[in-house]
Amino acid sequence: MLNAGVLGAGHLGKIHLRLLNQSEKYNLVGFYDADDENGKKVAAEFGYTYFNSIEALINAVDMVDIVTPTLSHYDCARQAIAKGKHIFIEKPITNTVEEAETLRALVAEYGVKGQVGHVERFNPAFIAVKEQLDSPMFIESHRLAEFNPRGTDVPVVLDLMIHDIDIILSVVKSKVKSISASGVSVISDAPDIANARIEFVNGCVANLTASRISLKNMRKTRFFQKDAYISVDFLEKKCEVVKMKDAPQNPGDFDMILQNAEGIKKQIYFDNPEISDNNAILDELETFAEAINSNTKPIVTLHDGTEALRVATMIINQF
């Protein structure tokens, strides 16, 4: 078992503490929180060991789980890497692309592993269809959330849209060609609703919308590719796959057949992939342990996190 420690005991930090504590792949050593009063409260309520300094916690563990505000990600990670510790770091990886690039260099220099907490990669609905995603040419995503004061210190792009940016970059194996975007601040100082159009070198176009002032929650992405339409509902953990194939010579009475202007006939059929229930946060933490123990590449690398932040920053710079 890997000795693990958590930096940050806020809303998400407490979830990480609970999951690391129940995981069979980690031994939860303890945690640190910059708010001493909150740290002692969490320790008293849940029984976790509270360290009174970052340095003391880092020295006591093999892996540091960084669940602090984004502005402190870089400094926390840098200290952990310099001590030869593996790092799991919540999204966005850092506050700036330059900081992310530095962390990537440091991880390579010190020979440790790093993973970024892009949890939607572990969403069971996405896992169920990702092997069927083959060169989509148009992607549309909507990530809408009801207003919550937590997270409004950053633009909605870094708060919400970055999830979909990472998913799209993991699927589209092509470089970004151009980006156009717009954002509007309604309640916060930073934009609360944003739309971005990303064009890739291979011709794929992705249209992303994110809002944190919606009347309802929605997290859906639709992929359009040759002979297939694939929809992923990240919120409801459902997926839909509609495919087309050449129509049979003698279609059955209930076969759905389309014929285009050239007379070519296609049959529409539905595929319902099996979705296995899981705890996505626990899975991302445990697959990181597996990557450390087997010396293999983490599922969401620091490179992945850096590229998602790079695209997010390009979008924000359009506002």
TrEMBL record:
Gene3D superfamilies named in the record: Dihydrodipicolinate Reductase, domain 2, NAD(P)-binding Rossmann-like Domain
Domain GFO/IDH/MocA-like oxidoreductase: 156-216
One MF term in the entry's GO annotations: nucleotide binding
InterPro entries in alphabetical order: Gfo/Idh/MocA-like_OxRdtase_N, Gfo/Idh/MocA_Oxidoreductases, GFO_IDH_MocA-like_dom, NAD(P)-bd_dom_sf
Source domain of life: Bacteria
Domain Gfo/Idh/MocA-like oxidoreductase N-terminal: 3-118
PANTHER family: BILIVERDIN REDUCTASE A
Annotated protein name in UniProt: Gfo/Idh/MocA family oxidoreductase
Species: Lacinutrix neustonica
